[in-house]
């Protein structure tokens, strides 16, 4: 059990645990119905077919009554009447079945269309979420909402809602015709209904609890699979010899799902046994009183037989209706979970009158920029603003859930921003880089076409600084300007078109080389794609592959080496041709040949662009117009290579430990 700290989290958890039940609210229903509004005509047709089907369902008992009273029991049997009644007994179910198929087709089309709209809206909303959201949310949780919850929402429309309406109409019509036939038998038949209601509510409460536990157990099992059944997870499992422990952990969680499934099946089976017994009691009472009335000559035997048929048609829908609010509310939980995701605010948004900036010159300015990864205070639902709650919707309020451990680890407190100003002397790097502010009061300016090399110890804030330029995050203080415009005043598409970025960990889609190259510029021609590949020194390698540019690169490009992936990433950015380039040129996992090829590709890539490079090569540092030295989120030194060496500060220390060996090899 995970309990949120602070803000009354414990009380909220205990309160929600005591009040653990799905709630049905009018705003939620109204919002769901809003998605059905574009399909009003089809919904009306579905309702009409439900009415017709329910009416046809009332005809067979009347035909049976007429057959018994007017044909079989009559003194002179009417053969023609017998023929017509037999024909009717075939025609009614045939027509009713045809209507049901037509109704199912209509309701399925409406339901699938609504889910299509909902799923598309949800995916589009997720595309607009910031990187912060994805660093705090498990991929399995998003898959659960996009798949499991959307399917649950679909069932709420195509099954639960339709079944609710059908049962309500069936009960109303059946009671009406039963009262018209014989009111005394009707009252006797409904005497067992209170037992139905009590039993359904008791079992319904138990089943809701089991369903919630199943959702939670399934989510934990899916999270474990998501963490371990991918190339990175499998690499870690195999390297540390944890295959058997992971199998045991998975079996434990799978066993939870199994036991809950068994409990749910047994409870459901016992419930239907009791319901069947109650139905038998109701039928026995009707046949007992009806038989006495037939013997007394009050009415004929056909009426009693028809009543028996109507009772069978009445008890099933009645039992479903007694638990209908709970079933409907439980079904709408899926909608509620999807709406929770849709209602999360998008941190990186576009201003109403955002500027297009079709072709940037490339002037880049940081003005007193400060940024922290720390979350804002938790809201009333226990989750930080802009973040999801846990998988379970009712009874829990924790935010980020551990995938492997049974409980989330305690949060670590971060040190505050350390002192340090530009020009400070550093003999060695500080012991650690832990702090609250990842960047603090960072200011610098790059003219169009200039190259800035960013150096500093690990954790100094280099990658964070690079993430702010394409607006993967927004700074809490200060601003970043491109050609004199605040990034927040520009269209997001304009930023994407004018800013290119190559990250340290190259990501390739499980697709062809061609698809991965054209991702940055889908409209590029074959000749342009090949030219970019040649400039990145990857064309000859790709051309030699069995399927050339149509070769599948594998999960995250794992069929390629690190150098090959990086050169494809460089070719992808070259094809995009941005005016501003952000680059992390890590080479620690490359051999000498691959590094030499990448260095040649970088010369082409950096030419004529405003470039900010997290530099790992001395050659890049020597070619830079300015070197920015970061430590604990601050620029502590800036200048050219010779100037910074002469100061004898942090850069000189980094040069001695990181770059002198490169110079010696050169």
What does this structure look like?
The protein has 666 residues and is α/β, with parallel strands linked by helices. The chain has 2 domains: 25-342, Up-down Bundle (ABC transporter transmembrane region fold); 439-665, P-loop containing nucleotide triphosphate hydrolases (Rossmann fold, 3-Layer(aba) Sandwich). The chain is 59% helix and 8% strand. It has 23 helices and 10 strands. The protein has helices at 9-18, 26-36, 40-57, 59-72, 79-127, 131-135, 139-181, 183-189, 193-228, 231-239, 243-295, 301-322, 324-342, 462-468, 492-498, 513-518, 526-535, 539-543, 562-576, 592-606, 618-623, 641-647, 650-665, and strands spanning 364-371, 439-446, 451-455, 477-482, 485-486, 499-502, 580-584, 610-614, 626-631, 634-639. The strands form 2 sheets. The chain has a 6-stranded mixed beta sheet with strand order 6-7-8-3-9-10, with helices on both faces. It has a 4-stranded antiparallel beta sheet with strand order 2-1-4-5, with helices on one face. The longest helix is centred in the middle third of the chain and has 53 residues, at 243-295. Mean pLDDT is 79; it is low at 1-22, 377-382, 390-400 and 407-431.
Chain-wise SSE layout:
Elements: H1 9-18, H2 26-36, H3 40-57, H4 59-72, H5 79-127, H6 131-135, H7 139-181, H8 183-189, H9 193-228, H10 231-239, H11 243-295, H12 301-322, H13 324-342, E1 364-371, E2 439-446, E3 451-455, H14 462-468, E4 477-482, E5 485-486, H15 492-498, E6 499-502, H16 513-518, H17 526-535, H18 539-543, H19 562-576, E7 580-584, H20 592-606, E8 610-614, H21 618-623, E9 626-631, E10 634-639, H22 641-647, H23 650-665
Parallel strand pairs: 3-8, 3-9, 6-7, 7-8
Antiparallel strand pairs: 1-2, 1-4, 4-5, 9-10
